[in-house]
Amino acid sequence: MFDKIKNLSKDTLIYGTNTIIGRFLGFFLVPFYTNKFLPEEYGIITIIYSYIAILNVFFSIGLESGYMKFASTREVGSEKQNFSTPYVIVLLNSFFLSLLIFLFSSELTTVFQINVKYSYLIKYSAVILFFDTIVLIPFACLRLKNKARSFAGIKITNIVLNVLLNVILISFFGLGIEAVFISNLIASIVTFILLLPLLRKNFSFSVHKELLKELLKFSLPWIPAGIAANLVQIIDRPILKYLTDDKVVGVYTANYKLGIFMMLVVSMFEFAWRPFFLNNASEPDAKKIFSKVLTIFILFCSFVFLVISFFIEEIVKLDLPFNSHLIGKAYWDGLEIVPVILFAYILYGIYINFMAGIYIEKKTKYLPLITGAGAIANVISNFILIPLYSYMGAALSTLISYAVMMAGIYLVSQKFYRIEYEFKKIFLILISLGFVTSVYFFFNTSIHLYWYYKILLIMFFIILVFSFKIINRSVFRKFIGS
Predict the structure, then answer these.
(1) pLDDT tens-digit profile of 212-237?
(2) How confident is the model at residue 482 (pLDDT cuts 50, 70, 90)?
(3) In DSSP terms, which residues pair with 320 in a beta bridge?
(4) How does the average pLDDT of the chain come out, rounded?
(5) Interacting residues of 450 by C-beta distance below 8 A, sequence separation 6+
């Protein structure tokens, strides 16, 4: 069992190394933007990208997930048909939607909550959406064929080009927020060009009717589920804008993005987790393996949570070149939301763990109900909590919505694919995490704790883990051994 879990951890590390490089290159833009743009200007960028995230679901219509499911098992059609059928539908759908958005950009400024003078940004967004959508199936193909290096290389090329163009257009050509969209568009077009050899090899302009029927049956539930999931991630910005102003949105978004440290862990795990549970679902001890994976995942994320929460202020306030910081000083008031966002991502990671049962048993029809409940909880709690606590209310709403999604997918998955999770150990991990975190915030509010006290508290958490026998030394050595 531990050999399989070690393989999962190695796959996570392989994807993770590439993901970390890409994410941090992208994250470089946060301090760059927050040191170059006013919070109001950064707020406009984040609002538009929030709507782009929602529109992504309508463009892809869930066929990326459908492709991975059916291309991996080859239940219907040939390899080329499994690639071409979803790609043709995605291509036609995204072209039609992009054309509509481009032609009616001025009319859509009200929907995007921006001034009509920024309608040209919506035009850029329409073309970005088109190119970003038509590369989804090729990227999924690379993952499915275990071509992690090619996948990562193209992804990183996209991000590096995007970052460089932002710096050049803003710092040397003096462009404003339009530079963000121009850079993104060019990077997206280059990504498509890099994937053309794979497209030529696998694509034919044909649709396998029986495969399409199966794809739509599996994938269509991902549309409302994806919309709801994206709403959970970004609906707080438009609501925050409606209830406050662009400045508050900018401060909130900049600090929300500091959750990247936990998001990286979850993203790394997610890349490796889906092929892992699909490949091991038929193993006799599969459920026992999946149970142990959840315990290890929560334990590792708890450690990351403590490190980032305790040291985020020092990290953010480090002096960077050109008299800048990780995020600009005008945004520091929002640092209090970071631990909330970090823990929200832990809940999202647990949600991803629980997704195995629904995926294996093909019960995707329940996903819209689960993510829909999370989205509804998010919207309601935002309208209740933002007037009371401003951006902290938005952060708490994110936490609440992920908790709802986590509980919902657990109940459904257990109904069709019951796993005996190690709840006693998980409870002890969370109790230890809560105790150490409470001690830190209790003392840090009255006296600023020096770095060595913070390290001692983290070490105390590790001692509690071994004291409660959540993991013992022999198993630990076996797990990390070669």
Answers:
(1) 888 887 777 777 777 787 778 778 88
(2) very low
(3) 324
(4) 84
(5) none
Distance (Å) of CA 473 to CA 300, 463, 469, 478: 16, 11, 9, 8
Q: How far apart are CA 94 and CA 60, in angstroms?
A: 7
Instruction: List the structure tokens of 313.
Output: 């202020």
Say whether both 227 and 210 belong to one domain.
Answer: no
Structure confidence by residue, pLDDT tens digits, 16-45 = 555 555 555 556 677 778 778 887 788 788
Of residues 188 and 473, more confidently modeled: 188
- Which of 202, 219, 236 marks a domain boundary? 219
H helix and E strand count, the chain? 22, 0
Looking at the DSSP bridge assignments, the partners of residue 324 are 320
Q: State the Cα–Cα distance between residues 443 and 117, nearest whole angstrom.
A: 49
Residues 85 and 132 in one domain: yes
| Sign of the Cα pseudo-torsion (72, 414, 399, 297, in order) | negative
Residue 154 · residue 193 · CB < 8 Å:
no
At 205, the amino acid letter reads F
> How many other β-carbons are positioned within 10 Å of the β-carbon of residue 97?
18
Q: Are 158 and 301 members of one domain?
A: no
Is the whole model's pTM more than 0.90, yes or no? no
Q: Are 237 and 50 in contact (CB under 8 A)?
A: yes
Question: What burial class does residue 223 get, using C-beta atoms within 10 Å of its C-beta: 0-12 exposed, 13-18 middle, 19+ buried?
Answer: middle
The answer to whether 66 touches 85, Cβ cutoff 8 Å, is: no
Residue 196 sits in which domain range? 62-219
Chain segment 146-168, per-residue pLDDT in tens: 677 787 788 888 888 988 999 99
One-letter amino acid at 418 equals: R
- Alpha helices (H) along 361-422: 367-389, 391-416
Report the 10 Å Cβ neighbour count for 479.
15
Q: Encoding tokens for residue 382?
A: 């935002």
Say yes or no: 210 and 83 in one domain. yes
Angle at 323 between CA 317 and CA 324, to 5 degrees: 50
CB 297 within 8 A of CB 8: no
Continuous segment of H or E residues that includes residue 300: helix 286-316
105 occurs within a structural domain:
yes
Question: Quick one: three-class SS letters along 199-265?
Answer: HHHHCCCCCCHHHHHHHHHHHCCHHHHHHHHHHHHHCHHHHHHHHCCHHHHHHHHHHHHHHHHHHHH
Report how far apart the first and last C-alpha atoms of the chain are (Å, whole number): 15
Residue 383 burial (CB count, 10 A): 14
